[in-house]
């Protein structure tokens, strides 16, 4: 079989160039549009059933509600685990299915199972809420709103009606959740003595208010040749209107609601609170939708919050929690590592091949292989996250391997006296199958990682495929672009010429005057501030003195040493690169050392084999001493603390305890702010004796 695609690319250079021009353009476009997230988007089928009953004790909910729901869910096909959490008035049952089960199907199965036992559940419970749980759906940014001129009810209504409406309309925002604040409530406070005097009970008053204070649809009717909707409007528009509602008593009597007590526009008893550094606030967390970018959504939200702050100067907004900074920091760090790795790979090629043309070709292959990978990631629905960026940075050195193999073999054929065109044709044909085999081996090693089972497989799916795609593009570059560039760009090396010592002297003679000139300029800059106004040099250079930073003589001396060292180092590098290349029949110093060591290992082959087996066994044994874990520890400059008080504790007790804890924590100089969400744990358990503390540290 003829694997020499390179010969076709050398004879027809235009199609490969156009192919990679298109691939690079697609890669750049995809890189700009790829979402930046902290972790990959995973799909774990978890469905939660939430049932609430006001005033119910956990023991009652366990026997009357939770056990029946668990029994119904346990019979569904594909259920892996069933976990229930019961608190006062609330029962939450979470069912985890096997990964191969479709989440939508699992949700429908749970709804059907709960519907079958709905008649067996108590009539006093609220309607069960069944929803899928997004495992990776965590808030990306949290803001706090404060306004001294607004009551808690007014500020909460402002956040619900203005802020959340504005943010939920942004592209990429999944939901906005308010924390803290209060809910508006119209309270009817009945007078027991007045009820007893009139012979009416609170239940009768409640029944009449429910039946009369409501708007109902009355169907449709034709009036004047036009069809109009008929509505029965009887709900009160104001508190005063509700207070004037007539309550009918036995015996044909009637009284106003205000005569039975008072009607107050207030708020319901809080079951949670939010406090920032001991001050009450109304906080709201922003969640991104699945597939959206953390950074893009956070930027849009920040812009919208800034507009809201400008339109409402009486309300102060402050960012109190932010996971996007850490995510974007990881992205920038990965990009810097990628650039550093590419630069180091090019430097290594330059030092070993000692040919700037070959180094330029190797440098070109890196972006040609890496950039189209982003296009493939976009097609597969991947994002720029910790796992995919790890794959990109890890594969940096591998991307240039195939090109180095091709370049070195072409260089060898050129050293045999062949023209670059012929050398590229024959060298590429000679090792074409070997290069393909190397690449396919790497793909075969990394691809199975993407098909692991369990949660780990969901996370590492992007790792293996990203490496495999990048290596595949490096193969295309090595077989199509590298030989073609070598055929038209390489030149034969000089096999004779001056020695290293002579070249070093020439380079030093060339660079020494330049270094001396630079040192003179440094000392001139240091001399200018101390020169008098009558000095002709100072007068001539005076207008330019303000354009350069001030230097002392000590600083000038230190910089002069750096200039001298740089000149010597550059001279050594240029002399090394300018040395004549050895002929094909002779090896360099490094190759002679390697072959000598190789002869030694072959001569004592049994000892070599025993040492290899011993090192392999030692490595396998050392695995048990390595720490294990799914995700390594990270420093996100934030700590989340769960606080739980004894059963029976009130919300006021929780607030007092958390205030004391915040006061102690704030004494640490490394603490920037502390956000307390009372009435809920970090895992989402709602109970007044629990609290979640988010401690933001200085960066």
Automatic annotation (TrEMBL):
It comes from the Bacteria. Keywords: Membrane, Transmembrane, Transmembrane helix. GO terms for cellular component: plasma membrane. This is Cation/multidrug efflux pump. GO terms for molecular function: xenobiotic transmembrane transporter activity. InterPro entries: AcrB_DN_DC_subdom, Acrflvin-R. The chain crosses the membrane at residues 12-32, 334-353, 360-377, 389-410, 431-451, 463-490, 510-528, 559-579, 600-620. The keyword Transmembrane helix applies. It holds the Pfam family ACR_tran. The keyword Electron transport does not apply. It comes from uncultured Rhizobium sp. HF0500_10F10.
């Amino acid at each position: 079989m003829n694997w020499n695609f390179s010969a076709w690319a050398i004879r027809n250079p235009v199609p490969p160039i156009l192919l990679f021009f298109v691939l690079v353009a697609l890669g750049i476009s995809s890189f700009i549009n790829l979402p930046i997230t902290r972790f990959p988007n995973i799909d774990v089928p978890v469905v939660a059933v939430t049932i609430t009953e006001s005033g119910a004790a956990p023991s009652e909910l366990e026997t009357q509600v939770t056990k029946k729901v668990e029994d119904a869910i346990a019979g569904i096909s594909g259920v892996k685990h069933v976990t229930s959490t019961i608190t006062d008035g609330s029962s939450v049952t979470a069912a985890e299915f096997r990964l191969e089960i479709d989440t939508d199907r699992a949700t429908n199965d749970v709804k059907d199972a709960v519907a079958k036992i709905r008649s067996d559940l108590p009539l006093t419970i609220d309607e069960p809420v069944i929803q899928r749980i997004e495992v990776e759906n965590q808030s990306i940014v949290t803001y706090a709103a404060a306004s001294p001129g607004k009551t808690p009810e007014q500020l909460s209504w402002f956040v619900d009606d203005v802020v959340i409406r504005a943010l939920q309309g942004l592209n990429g925002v999944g939901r906005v959740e308010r924390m803290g604040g209060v809910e508006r409530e119209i309270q009817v406070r009945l007078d027991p003595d007045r009820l007893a005097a009139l012979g009416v009970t609170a239940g009768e008053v409640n029944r009449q208010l429910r039946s009369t204070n409501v708007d109902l649809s009355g169907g449709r009717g034709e009036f004047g040749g036009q069809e109009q909707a008929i509505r029965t409007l009887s709900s009160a528009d104001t508190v005063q209107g509700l207070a004037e509602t007539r309550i009918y008593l036995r015996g044909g009597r009637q009284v106003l609601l205000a005569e039975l007590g008072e009607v107050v526009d207030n708020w319901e008893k809080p079951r949670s609170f939010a406090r920032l550094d001991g001050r009450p606030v109304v906080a709201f967390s922003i969640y991104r939708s699945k597939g959206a970018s953390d950074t893009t959504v956070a930027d849009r939200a920040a812009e919208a919050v800034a507009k809201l702050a400008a339109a409402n100067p009486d309300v102060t907004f402050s960012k109190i929690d932010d996971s996007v900074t850490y995510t974007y920091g990881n992205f920038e760090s990965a990009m810097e590592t990628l650039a550093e790795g590419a630069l180091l790979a090019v430097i290594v090629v330059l030092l070993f091949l000692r040919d700037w043309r070959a180094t330029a070709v190797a440098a070109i292959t890196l972006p040609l292989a890496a950039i189209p990978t982003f296009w493939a990631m976009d097609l597969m629905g991947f994002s720029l996250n910790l796992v995919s960026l790890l794959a990109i940075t890890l594969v940096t050195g591998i991307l240039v391997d195939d090109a180095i193999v091709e370049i070195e073999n072409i260089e060898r054929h050129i050293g045999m006296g062949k023209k670059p065109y012929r050398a590229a044709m024959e060298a590429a044909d000679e090792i074409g199958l070997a290069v393909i085999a190397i690449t396919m081996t790497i793909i075969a090693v990394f691809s199975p990682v993407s098909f692991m089972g369990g949660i780990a497989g969901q996370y590492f799916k992007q790792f293996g495929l990203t490496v495999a795609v990048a290596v595949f593009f490096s193969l295309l570059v090595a077989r199509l672009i590298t030989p073609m560039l070598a055929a038209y760009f390489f030149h034969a090396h000089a096999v004779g010429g001056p020695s290293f010592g002579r070249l070093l002297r020439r380079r030093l003679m060339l660079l020494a005057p330049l270094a001396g000139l630079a040192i003179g300029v440094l000392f001139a800059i240091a001399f200018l501030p101390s020169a008098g106004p009558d000095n002709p040099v100072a007068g001539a250079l005076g207008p330019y003195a303000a354009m350069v930073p001030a230097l002392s003589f000590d600083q000038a001396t230190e910089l002069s040493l750096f200039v001298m060292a740089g000149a010597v180092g550059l001279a050594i590098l240029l002399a090394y690169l300018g040395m004549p290349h050895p002929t094909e029949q002779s090896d360099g110093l490094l190759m002679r050392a390697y072959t000598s060591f190789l002869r030694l290992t072959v001569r004592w082959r049994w000892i070599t084999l025993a040492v290899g087996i011993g090192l392999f066994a030692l490595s396998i044994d050392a695995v048990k001493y390595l720490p294990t874990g799914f995700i390594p520890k990270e420093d996100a400059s934030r700590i989340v603390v769960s606080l739980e008080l004894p059963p029976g504790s009130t919300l006021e007790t929780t607030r007092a305890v958390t205030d004391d804890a915040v006061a102690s924590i704030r004494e640490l100089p490394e603490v920037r702010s502390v956000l307390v969400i009372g009435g809920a744990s970090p895992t989402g358990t709602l109970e007044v004796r629990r609290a979640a503390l988010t401690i933001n540290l200085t960066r």
